[in-house]
Amino acid sequence: MLVSRFVLRAFCLTLASSVGFVGCTQESPEPIAATDAEASVYNLTMDTTEFMAHVLEPMADVLWKSAGWILDENEGYYELYPTDDESWLNVHNHGAMIVEAGNLMLLPGRAQDGAWTTYAQATSEVGLRIMSAADAQNNEDLFQAGAQLYSVCTACHQAYNPEILTRFTPGGLTE
Ligand code: HEC
Prior knowledge:
Layout: E1 2-4, H1 5-21, H2 36-41, H3 48-64, E2 69-72, E3 76-79, H4 85-104, H5 116-136, H6 139-160, H7 164-167
Antiparallel strand pairs: 1-2, 2-3
Helix pairs in contact: 1-6, 3-4, 4-5, 5-6
The structure holds heme C (HEC).
């Protein structure tokens, strides 16, 4: 049996956001097409799914594996928080990447109609909070920001592609 503080909290957030989203209609899943000029400037070889799987999720996993605690029947209770300056810097850097990932979701050809911009901007905001938590080396702030990040991912998936909710299990939450 394995209990993680993050799993429990993330579950509550998911539940809260599902309740909050009852009655909302699903957004159109079509990206807003880039103009020819834009398409020649940005490299959009990766579609949204690839961006999520190879860019955003790996970044987020580093953060989720750096916050909370695990209760494992073999290894007992242990904390995931950074314990030295170097690992805090790694969290700081990944927070910065999350800020920029919010921008990457807004590239012409990747952005979509509806609340997409709001979710992308919220991603960047949470990235800034992660950076501040890392600067202050504050475990609780880092945990809260990690939970907020999970909640932004989930809210956007709920709005744009609800099937993802069943497939989407952040790596850090299951180990
Ligand atoms: C602005 C909206 C938005 C945000 C924010 C967002 N996603 Fe996504 N995500 C999507 C959409 C849309 C898809 C589905 C793309 C498709 O299948 O066409 C997706 C798909 C995925 C997938 C499935 C990829 C696959 O292989 O099928 C993963 C994993 C994922 N997102 C991870 C994340 C993580 C982790 C976060 C937060 C750190 C996040 N996403 C935040 C919109 C978003």
